[in-house]
Amino acid sequence: MSLRRSSRTPLLTSLLFSVLLLSMEAPAQTEPEPLEFGYIHLPPFGYTDSEGQSKGYLVELARQVFSAMDQPVRFVQHPATRLYRQIDSGETAFTLAADDLHRLKNTAVEAEEPAITLNLTVYRFKDTQPVSDVEQLKGHHVVLMKGYSYGELGRFFEAESDAMHITEARTHQSALQMIQFGRADYLLNYQTPADTTIAQHGLTGLESDVIAQLDVHFFVSKMLENAQALADEWDQNLRDIKRDDRQPSKESYNIKSP
């Protein structure tokens, strides 16, 4: 009996050693590299706080959707021009922008489900004639936000630029103060960030008219081979989040519903 055990021991040891060696040589499972989600400075929808953290309603909504997709991402703020250029090249994989954004028409796949609907609003001094249509802005000095997309209205301003005096402002405060101090007639802006700026800085004498609504959609760089599949997966998970009413609270960001 003892002789049989001793003859089997080297064989058993050899087998165990082989299994151990194979397990050590097997490639480890690695997490996929996070892809970049780019956003512009548009508080309270997207911004970078004083500690360098990405914040805002749309940033938090994107985190929820990507978590449901099991898609690792990193959030990076860019100026609009750089953001769109990096979507073109694939350096930035994802963003949220105005639906049917002409700038990304050829370089990104657009998802279908709106992430949010925004009010496009014309701001004016209280004594200035109200407007209900962009055609009424012709012949006036109009302020637009530099780098912002205005959807179909953006194409209107490109086509009719000779029919009005257009100035681009870099900040909401400077844009609104141009109206407040009579340096321009009208400002076209997104309602929530503009109203937030008015409240924060105590700007007075301003009135506003909502003239359009704009849906915000998810865009995927076409440099990703599975761009359409990612857009479809985003849509499905966003619909599920909406159905279950799990999106971030708009009230906590002082966002008015259209």
From TrEMBL:
InterPro entries, per database record: Solute-binding_3/MltF_N
Domain of life assignment: Bacteria
Residue span, Solute-binding protein family 3/N-terminal domain: 41-245
Residues spanning the signal sequence: 1-28
Record flagged with keyword Magnesium: no
Keywords: Signal
The family this protein is said to belong to: Belongs to the bacterial solute-binding protein 3 family.
Protein name listed in UniProt: Solute-binding protein family 3/N-terminal domain-containing protein
Organism: Halovibrio salipaludis
